[in-house]
């Protein structure tokens, strides 16, 4: 006999999915609040203006996506995590990086780099023409 009403397994999956989303949003908000407090506590004003998050931008990205955005490899992200330069979030077995961390690292790199300089091109090395010894056809 078929059961009527909501499927208990499906509703628990939906509840779990909503809980994971809520935790991700809360973690990103806490990161943003911590960054604001850190900037307010520092005596010098920030050199770069903070980038406002895009409403369509995800709050958390995968390690591969974060590495692509930062122009580094995954191993570098793990080294940065060990050094305390970046934090990860583990959600359901996936390692994710808050976009606030990615934006912070991009801003720090921009302030360290300073104004962009035009690259100087070096003169190409001078090469001598290769000497070719000609052998007549009958002597090969």
Concise account of the structure shown:
This protein is 47% helix and 8% strand.
Question: What are the main properties of this structure?
Answer:
single chain; 140 residues; mainly alpha; elongated
Secondary structure layout plus pairing:
Layout: H1 8-41, E1 60-62, H2 63-70, H3 74-82, E2 89-91, E3 94-98, H4 99-113
Antiparallel strand pairs: 1-3, 2-3
Could you characterize the architecture of this molecule?
By secondary structure, the protein is mainly alpha-helical. The protein is 47% helix and 8% strand. It has helices at residues 8-41, 63-70, 74-82, 99-113, and strands spanning 60-62, 89-91, 94-98. The model has no long low-confidence stretch (mean pLDDT 76).
How far apart, in Å, are the first and last alpha carbons?
A: 93 Å
The main sheet orders its strands as 1-3-2
Overall pLDDT confidence: 76
Number of helices: 4
Gross morphology: elongated
Strand count: 3
Strand content: 5-15%
What are the low-pLDDT stretches, counting only 5+ consecutive residues below 50?
none
